[in-house]
């Protein structure tokens, strides 16, 4: 049963404006991600250990735009998700968007680490990043994202309509022990840890680059 978290009805002009805005985001997401992916397809030699995770993020953006925006646009122009779509489609849309969102966040962590390795660590260790490590990291990102996205279907957390009733996501108002535990878990795993890790990596990169520039100038 869908967790109905809708709290209020939006004015019609807000729903239409939101629908047009999301339609624009959909078009831009498909066009920009599609063009960028086209460059990599045309020039496959550009795909290497360093750019692999960038290509994966572009793929996530393309699939998320293609699969996640269309039902939301329909719901916005209809006034409510359940006017033309089912509860199951709401859960499916939430799962897809959440999965690709988690995956992209974890892939950004991998990019930060590879840049850290290339700028801060590798000049010292002189050890390249092996392809098997990249494949392992990519697989771990996808597996963790899948586990987190599927967990609400297994009773840990829940998916539901968001406040305005035209899009779906996690049931943020779930105050059960399992629901709160899941929200704390994903807040830590999907936000606090990735952002902290990336900040540490990029701070070290900036320090290293700044020190190198100072050495060249002096």
UniProtKB/TrEMBL annotation:
<dbReference type="InterPro" id="IPR000276">
    <property type="entry name" value="GPCR_Rhodpsn"/>
</dbReference>
<keyword id="KW-0675">Receptor</keyword>
<feature type="transmembrane region" description="Helical">
    <location>
        <begin position="134"/>
        <end position="159"/>
    </location>
</feature>
<keyword id="KW-0297">G-protein coupled receptor</keyword>
<feature type="transmembrane region" description="Helical">
    <location>
        <begin position="20"/>
        <end position="40"/>
    </location>
</feature>
<protein>
    <recommendedName>
        <fullName>G-protein coupled receptors family 1 profile domain-containing protein</fullName>
    </recommendedName>
</protein>
<dbReference type="InterPro" id="IPR017452">
    <property type="entry name" value="GPCR_Rhodpsn_7TM"/>
</dbReference>
<dbReference type="GO" id="GO:0004930">
    <property type="term" value="F:G protein-coupled receptor activity"/>
</dbReference>
<dbReference type="GO" id="GO:0016020">
    <property type="term" value="C:membrane"/>
</dbReference>
<keyword id="KW-0472">Membrane</keyword>
<dbReference type="InterPro" id="IPR050125">
    <property type="entry name" value="GPCR_opsins"/>
</dbReference>
<feature type="transmembrane region" description="Helical">
    <location>
        <begin position="52"/>
        <end position="75"/>
    </location>
</feature>
<feature type="transmembrane region" description="Helical">
    <location>
        <begin position="179"/>
        <end position="203"/>
    </location>
</feature>
<feature type="domain" description="G-protein coupled receptors family 1 profile">
    <location>
        <begin position="32"/>
        <end position="218"/>
    </location>
</feature>
<keyword id="KW-0812">Transmembrane</keyword>
<dbReference type="Pfam" id="PF00001">
    <property type="entry name" value="7tm_1"/>
</dbReference>
<feature type="transmembrane region" description="Helical">
    <location>
        <begin position="95"/>
        <end position="114"/>
    </location>
</feature>
<keyword id="KW-1133">Transmembrane helix</keyword>
<keyword id="KW-0807">Transducer</keyword>
